[in-house]
Design a protein that fits this description.
The structure holds two protein chains of two kinds.
Chain A (H helix, E strand, L loop, with lengths): L1 H27 L2 H26 L7 H16 L2 H7 L19 H24 L5 H19 L1 H4 L5 E2 L7 H20 L1 H11 L1 H6 L4 H27 L1 E2 L6 H14 L4 H17 L1 H4 L2 E3 L2 E3 L5 H16 L12 H7 L6 H12 L1
Antiparallel strand pairs in A: 1-2, 3-4
Chain B lengths: L2 H32 L6 H17 L5 H24 L7 H23 L4 E2 L4 H4 L1 E4 L2 E4 H23 L1 H11 L1 H6 L4 H26 L2 E2 L5 H14 L4 H21 L7 H15 L14
Helix pairs in contact in B: 1-6, 1-7, 1-9, 1-10, 1-11, 2-3, 2-4, 2-9, 2-10, 3-9, 6-7, 6-9, 7-9, 10-11, 10-12, 11-12
Classes of the chains: A mainly alpha, B mainly alpha.
Chain lengths: 362, 297
Amino acid sequence: MERRRLHLVLTLALIAVLFLALWWANTHLGEFPLRVARTGAIYVVAAVAYNLVNGITGQFSLGPNGFMALGGYTTALLVLPLQQKQFVWFLEPLMWPFNSFSFPGYLFGLAVLLGGVMGALGALLVGIPSFRLRGDYLAIATFGFGEIIFVLANNLIPLTNGPLGMKGIPEYANVYWCFGAAIVATLVVSNIANSSYGRAMKAIRDDEIAAEAMGVNVFRTKMLAFVTSGFFGGVAGGLLVSLITTISPTLFTFGMTFNLLIIIVLGGLGSITGSVITGFGFALMSELLRVVEAPINIGPIHIPGVPGMRMVVFSVLLILLMIFYRRGLFGQFELSWDWVLSVLRVTRGVRECKRERKTESS
Amino acid sequence: MTLETLIQQLMNGISLGSLYALIAIGYTMVYGILRLINFAHSDIFMVGAYFAFFLVAIFRLPWGVSAILAIILTALVGMIVDRAAYRPVRNAPRISALITAVGVSFFLENLGLVTVGARPKAFQRPDIMARVIPIGPAAVSGVSIWVPILSLALLALLLFIVYRTKVGMAMRSVSTDIETTRLMGVDVDRVISYTFAIGSALAAAGGIMWACKYPQINPLMGIYPGWKAFTAAVVGGIGNITGAMLGGFLIGLVEIMTVAVLPGLSGYRDGIIFTLLLVFLLLRPTGILGEPLKEKV
């Protein structure tokens, strides 16, 4: 109990330090680094949740783009100012009730939360048919769901404005919102992963039949992981559209899921720590790798830029990771206070305890 | 709807369905043997169409020759993909193999975008496909006649290979039990390689005929046909070859007929197919012909 309280205090202190750092960054750093940091934080929200399904529960979902689209459209419809709504829907009027209200800035959190709820409902809808079966049906069903959302977004013009999408969404998603969401998502997912539900999820990943025989309610446990992931996917979508201030169906195509897949595989399937670090790393890398697509001049040699080369690099990286480095950067390692403290030699870590026990017995 | 349009739409649906059937075979054979959703299959389909395009447009080969060459080349690509990407992860957890498949799919698409460009290319189809043929009161394009005929011929050839040859016997044996087959002295890796080759060859034939039907090709052209063909494989009962054929025709007819009967829904045609997929998963997950999968413990 003592140790648990210590960890809580340390976590709260870390969050406080982080927010102080954010406050400093917000006032001192330029627009561009802040933008990359916010994008990274949003990737973290989506990736950590995605990892709960793919890495910790071991179910192959291809759905985060669909859930992000649900959250993104919900949030966009709620916060888009009324004047802007009239301006955007010039072909067909926006349907009731969204044409009669718009959330003010202080309700942005509620709008994002409702986006998350829509994502969770979407996950519930796909999860029920998919999880009644064993096997890879989830991958197919989630992909199909993403495509259905894409088709609906393109065609339901009174609700989504079709292929044109919406623009002029207020940029409420500042560093505090993005990092706040990232912290909440990480804490919730890691608490689930460390709870008895989390152990049930890992049991399903390692051997579904054995888990079922041990009395794990497989359907309910998978649903819990999947709906949680849908919720945070929706939250990430809502934050993302507010960050880039526009939304259109092409924002949430399969490419988005592919990015998240790279993040969780590179970080290590099942490692939340890995997803957090590679989430930020990916946001940074996709900016840095723009170099690959730009023309390069090395002395007299001219290498013309090839647009789209980044995705070739990423897909080769994904295949090579799977063949040669399946555990990813962090494997299933988790950063925990126990580990930090034992490294810092503040408390006796597991290794020292073992050593002492050995000397006692000998 | 007049009789004329009904005949036209039916022929259209059957030809589209036979293409889905050709692609669905590749999915269902690989799934039956490896329990792997080969996401890259839809891009193999695209590669086949591009091979034919380049052989006709650049090397100026006659039509029949380039189609056959393209099919052989695509079969080789399928074998290379299996050898280079899938064989190393064969004993890894299932999820690793699936992620590899997604990676290969994305790799082929983006390699296509980088090398041949995103701009669609006009596909020169042979005259026989473009000609309009009268059937009763309706005028049907040659594509709608020839595509089902050629597809049925290929499907018959496939059934012959699977049920009447030694390789086919080995394939059926591998899909029942890999380990026992290995103990019987069958070179399992080679059989799997042949499976990829046959699936890819059929996908290439589908891709070439698809390009005759919709004569514009681009590196992302495989995505939707591929997923609908996969839906067809699931609807027919995944792992079951005859089921995949049935599913293909069913999906093609449903897609064309919804649009023909309810033109207002034409924007939703892709959505309707995927909704059908979810409904099938909910009500009859083993498909029309599939037997319930027995789980081995």
